Amino acid sequence: MIGIIPKRTIITSTRSLSWFGDIFGGSKNLKQRQEKIEATQKEDLNLSESIEILNYQNSKEYLESIKNKKRIDYKIKNWKILNLKPYQIESYYESKEKLQNIINEQYKALTNQDIKYDSYETINLDDLQFRFDFIKSLESNLGFEINDYTISKSHNLKDLYIEIENQVSLRWKNERNPNSIVLRPDDFTAPNIYLNLERDDKQKQAEYNKLIAKMKQDQKNQQIQQNQL
Length: 229
Prior knowledge:
The protein has 229 residues and is mostly helical.
């Protein structure tokens, strides 16, 4: 006997969600969610007052943090009176008298005493607070920082001056190539050796562009003056 297996019918139907599941489950649009909630409040629940929808922006903690937050407006003042770039230090302090004058002036500003280079060795810096104030005053007026090791080992003004003098006399080197040698014309005294100071093509083009821009600006200013007349 041959048996017949009945076919199983597969029926698909759309799953209906309740208004509660539809609002908080499938909808990704916040505006639509809010509209549905407001409509439900008015029609189905018959509420006299609407229910506030809480989120991060209107939460109690967030509102209190905004209320208690104080905006601080301040600007950091540049504490350096003079600010030199590394390649400017050696040429700026080519004269050691300029360096000594700054040291003498800052020492007098703190102690109200006049000093000279010959008396540097007799001036002790054992008072750490005074040493700190003096160093910071020097850094502000010299235009560069003095490293901590120099500060810690300089127990009198002569030692400090020698370290600062060595620092300003140090020949500047290109930071991109610390081992490079910086050559100057005064390094070659022989008549058959000279240093070619001619600029390369890139430097020439940059200088040319500056001159062209300046010429155009001068012409523009001249034309404005003529129009005003």
